[in-house]
Design goal:
five-stranded parallel β-sheet; FAD/NAD(P)-binding domain; alpha/beta; four-stranded mixed β-sheet; binds flavin-adenine dinucleotide
Length: about 475
């Protein structure tokens, strides 16, 4: 009986505080999922931060009712990790957060004289279509069909708005990309890729398929030699070599993986040693890396490239293309930036008057804030913002930011400072590369274990952490699951 009680208590502790070592706050406001990881902060410490906060109302609007841990999406594409293991329902996070009865961060702090139990975080599964900055309104459309047919539209008023919609995949308007390529941005993308890879192997195994056709079907093209493209190519190679080659012995020799990169090298944001190691490793593994190769068109059968050195145009048939060439701003954000006068900052900065000079300065400032589009940056920005909201009253009275260029006095808050903790590039075959602060580079099997521990620790809850670790364990013991579900 005593044992059972202990079990109940332990289970409750995990359910109520999914992250005992970490406070996770998701504020996906009228838009995307900005996740504030209050990293490695003891729970009590986080509570202490929170108590000064007023009871404020937060509204979270996002078209997906879950938070996805994107760094593990390449592993989802081939079943190293299951999709459900890398997502945490927003309502789960909100419920636990709500249950704590203390407010740390407010998105829409319409101050209320309500009692403590009225404190609320509301979540709406909807997409933000437009922001009206002048009237402080966000126009949203629900994902769900309404009883009257069509999708319900509603507006959300705000006092403070945090936009965290993330970015969209950039196609550079290349013809045929949207229609024929896979992207790797969302969980659904990763699931679609997983099914398509298996489909290609099953299709190539049909008796009526010619040798030529098999080669085409099993030609996997990855466009973009950045961290996502490289990691996906490496994961796909592992899947083929470690699992599919045993299951589809008749077609295994027809498999080809090509990585196309318009620049001179893959992983060009990493140290040269890592780039060189990755290129050599891919060559040894038989992954064809074509640098200086710019994709100009994709049809349903062929992908066409322009070779920088020779200027010639080449077309190759393919079975599946994954497009991973970087990200662009979402249209709704571009429209919002125009509204608040940030859409044409470059134009303003050329004017030779004092306003022009000021705007040039602000442009320099914004360029300095041009940080890499990584989860590491987003998480730190989330934590910074949470801290600003929590200390708003205090900083109103005692501003701690730099002197204002326009107007007098100081800014309320210190500016955001990004602390770079390093970056990883998994390269397949249980090897990874890491570039750590201080120009420290580590490559090999031990780095892969470092990657496992860092990513496991960064997962947002104990539930997802345990699921992911068990998926890794299952994969080591049984291999990856090739069922097409
Ligand atoms: C495959 C992959 C691997 C990655 N690996 C790493 C890595 O290893 N390390 C790293 O640091 N970074 C990595 N990143 C980058 C990282 O995912 C992003 O930098 C980070 O997720 C950005 O966080 P965010 O909250 O700004 O946006 P996101 O995480 O993109 O969240 C945006 C949210 O906004 C929602 N949304 C979109 N449009 C609307 C709308 N109109 N209205 C309302 N909501 C909307 C979306 O559904 C989503 O929930 C990876 C990204 C990908 C795609």
């Amino acid at each position: 009986m005593r044992g059972y009680t202990f079990y109940q208590r332990a289970s409750r502790a995990f359910q109520d505080y999914p992250s005992l070592s970490k406070l996770v706050v998701v504020f996906t406001v009228s838009s995307g999922g900005l996740v504030a990881f209050s990293d490695a902060k003891p729970f009590r410490g986080a509570y202490a931060d929170a108590v000064q906060c007023d009871r404020k109302k937060k509204k979270v609007v996002s078209p997906r009712n879950y938070f996805a841990f994107t760094p593990l999406l390449p592993s989802v594409t081939i079943g190293t990790v299951e999709a459900r293991s890398v997502v945490e329902p927003i309502r789960n996070i909100v419920r636990k957060y709500h249950g704590l009865h203390h407010c740390r961060v407010s998105m829409f702090p319409r101050l209320q004289s309500a009692s403590e139990k009225d404190f609320d975080v509301q979540f709406r599964e909807a997409e933000c279509l437009r922001i009206d900055a002048k009237n402080k309104k966000v126009y949203c459309q629900s994902n769900q069909e309404s009883n009257l047919g069509g999708k319900e539209e509603f507006t959300v008023d705000y006092d403070y708005l945090v936009i965290a919609m993330g970015a969209r995949s950039n196609t550079f308007n290349t013809p045929g990309v949207v229609e024929n390529c896979h992207f790797l941005k969302e969980v659904e993308d990763a699931q679609r890729i997983r099914r398509t890879v298996i489909d290609c192997f099953e299709r190539a195994s049909l008796p009526s398929v010619s040798e030529e056709e098999k080669k085409k079907i099993l030609h996997f093209v990855v466009v973009g030699g950045g961290p996502t493209g490289v990691e996906f190519a490496a994961e796909l190679h592992d899947f083929v070599v470690e699992d599919l080659a045993k299951l589809y012995p008749a077609v295994k020799d027809h498999v080809k993986i090509t990585l196309l990169e318009a620049g001179d090298h893959i992983l060009n944001m990493f140290d040269k040693r890592i780039t060189a190691f990755a290129e050599e490793k891919f060559q040894r593994d038989g992954i064809s890396v074509k640098t200086g190769s710019m994709v100009i068109k994709v049809t349903d059968k062929e992908i066409s490239t322009k070779e920088r050195k020779t200027g010639e145009t080449l077309s190759v048939p393919y079975g599946m293309v994954v497009w991973s060439t970087g990200i662009g701003t979402r249209p709704v954000i571009m429209e919002f930036m125009k509204q608040i006068g940030q859409g044409n900052a470059q134009k303003e900065s050329t004017e030779l008057n004092i306003e022009g000079f000021k705007s040039a300065l602000s442009e320099v400032d914004s360029q300095m804030k041009n940080l890499p589009a990584t989860a590491q940056v987003a998480a730190q920005q989330g934590a910074y913002l949470a801290n600003c909201f929590n200390r708003m009253d205090e900083c109103e009275k005692h501003p701690e930011g730099p002197m204002r260029i326009r107007g007098s006095g100081h800014h309320r808050f210190r500016p955001f400072r990004y602390k770079h903790l390093g970056q990883f590039a998994p390269l397949g075959g249980e090897q990874a590369a890491a570039q750590l602060p201080g120009d420290w580079v580590s490559i090999g099997h031990s780095t892969q274990w470092l990657w496992y521990s860092v990513y496991a620790s960064k997962l947002v809850s104990w539930r997802t952490r345990m699921l992911v670790i068990s998926d890794w364990g299952k994969r080591f013991i049984f291999g990856r699951d090739s069922s097409r579900i």
